Structures are given as structure tokens and as C-alpha cells.
Amino acid sequence: MSVRKLKPITPGQRFRIVNNFEEITTNKPEKSLTVGIKKSGGRNNTGKMTMRYTGGGHKKKYRIIDFKRNKFNIEATVKTVEYDPNRTAFIALLEYADGEKRYIVAPNGIKVDQKVISGENVAPEVGNAMKLKNMPLGTVVSCIEMRPGQGAILARSAGSSAQLTSRDGKYAIVKLPSGESRMILVECMAMIGSVSNSDHQLTVSGKAGRSRWLGRRPRTRAVVMNPVDHPMGGGEGRSSGGHPRSRNGKPAKGYKTRKKNKVSNRYIVSKRK
């Protein structure tokens, strides 16, 4: 996994740093696992814009990902490692011994023709999925469930990983990518290994047009707005804008917005950095 810097033969390539995509083995997705996806352009069902700065972008197909890994004790072979326009991580196509195909979020270091399996008592090897109660302590994991059978919702983006630090009764204590240590039920599933495409954060788009291809429209800075549009707007000439805050007046940059009596507080062993 590596990145490369382009030669500046055009202005848009002067600062551009691109992914090498060395792990990718095909550019055609599995047709049976793709569905159409419709863009809303940030509009709701009445056509009113409810999300600013979204719209446009390249046409995509959604790849159906198996986040539950609930096909237990049946070995699968990795057929391809593919790019997915809907997420930062790469995805891997598995073909099970009974012929069924499924996509999973590809872990770091997965190879074509590698065997992976999910179940109760499987080896803690990269790509395998198992319950937190069966993993050795200190294991690096990703794609973690928060409720048994819910499907993975934690540590799914490119390069992210968590660590199983200890177990206490029916809870496992997992150190999450944010630095937070949290109690998660030992019956929850997780995948062994960190997520692929760890160099994603090193890439530089190089020009505004690449953001438009991703469906991101230009973002207006708060200090150039009028007072009616934003608390930081208005003033004569180039005003600094005052205290940084959001459009609805909540202070930004350090102000804590988490509720003191939030239900999930009881599961947090130590807060994020």
C-alpha cells in the first residue's frame, strides 16, 4: 500500500497525491451484489433543500456489504479486492464453499485466494470474524458490532482499528480508534485485523473539481455571510467573526455538547482524547 506524487504537467496535478491501488485486482463489481443508488442533492420529499453543500457527483452503484458475517463455520475464498465508491476502505469479494458470494470490508493484508471464516471457535487470523468472548486479549480488531446480530458499525473506515484490552463478565473492554475505551457485550462479532487502504488519509485531491466529482459543492465560510445567515457574519470590512460558533449559535472548538446523563455514559470506561 503506497501513494505517489504526480508530476505537475497541469495545474490540477501540481499538488496531487494519489493512491497506487496496488491491492485492487479488478474494476468490475459482482453484478448480483450491486444495486442502483439515487442522489437527493440534499433535498427532502417536498423538494426543499435540507442539507447544504451536497449535490452533483459521479454516478455510483451501491455494493451490498455483509456487515453481520453470520454465515458461520463455512470457509470462504477471497476472489477479488475491489474499490468501493461508497466508502474509504476497499472491499473483498468472498465465495463460500456452497457457492454463495458476499462482499466484506477488506482487512489490511488480505490476498486473493486466501481462506477466511467466521464462527465461534475459529483461528484469530486476519479476515476471520468471531465473537469478542473467543478472541485473545490484545487482538487488533475492526468492524465491531455494538449489539449482537446488529452488524458492524464501529471501526469501518480506511485504516481504522480497535484493540480488545480486557474482559469483565458479560462485557469486553475495547479501545476504539478515537481513544475511547468502551464496554461492549462479549456476544458481539468483530473482524480480526485493521481495515485496508490505510494510506487514504495521505492523498491530496489537487483541485476543487475532484470534490465536485464526489458530490461536494463549495462551502461558504461563516465570516463572509450576513448576520441574518450566521452568528459570525456581518461587520465592516474583513471582520474576524468573533467567537467561533455553529450556525445555530453553539460554540465550536472545544465546547462539549455531550449530555451529562446520556444513557451510554455507563459503558464508557475512559473518554476519548
Cα Rg: 22 Å
At CATH level 2, the architecture of the largest domain is: Beta Barrel
Model regions low in confidence, pLDDT < 50 over at least 5 residues: none
Number of domains: 2
Distance between the termini: 28 Å
- How many distinct beta strands? 15
Oligomer: single chain
Keywords: Ribonucleoprotein, Ribosomal protein, RNA-binding, rRNA-binding
GO molecular function, one term: transferase activity
Domain Large ribosomal subunit protein uL2 RNA-binding: 42-118
Domain Large ribosomal subunit protein uL2 C-terminal: 124-251
Describe the protein.
It is a single chain. Strand 5 and strand 6 (91-96) form a beta hairpin. The protein is globular, with a radius of gyration of 22 Å. The model has no long low-confidence stretch (mean pLDDT 95). The protein has 2 domains: 3-201, OB fold (Dihydrolipoamide Acetyltransferase, E2P), CATH 2.40.50; 224-261, Ribosomal protein L2, domain 3 (Irregular), CATH 4.10.950. The strands form 4 sheets. Strands 9-14-10-11-12-13-15 form a 7-stranded antiparallel beta sheet, with no helix packed on it. The chain has one helix at residues 208-213; strands spanning 3-5, 17-19, 34-36, 61-63, 76-82, 91-96, 101-105, 115-116, 129-131, 140-142, 162-168, 171-175, 181-185, 189-192, 268-270. It has 273 residues and is mainly β. It starts with a strand and ends with a strand. The chain is built from 1 helix and 15 strands. Keywords: Ribonucleoprotein, Ribosomal protein, RNA-binding, rRNA-binding. Residues 124-251 form the Large ribosomal subunit protein uL2 C-terminal domain. InterPro entries: NA-bd_OB-fold, Rib_uL2_dom2, Ribosomal_uL2, Ribosomal_uL2_bac/org-type, Ribosomal_uL2_C, Ribosomal_uL2_dom3, Ribosomal_uL2_RNA-bd_dom, Translation_prot_SH3-like_sf.
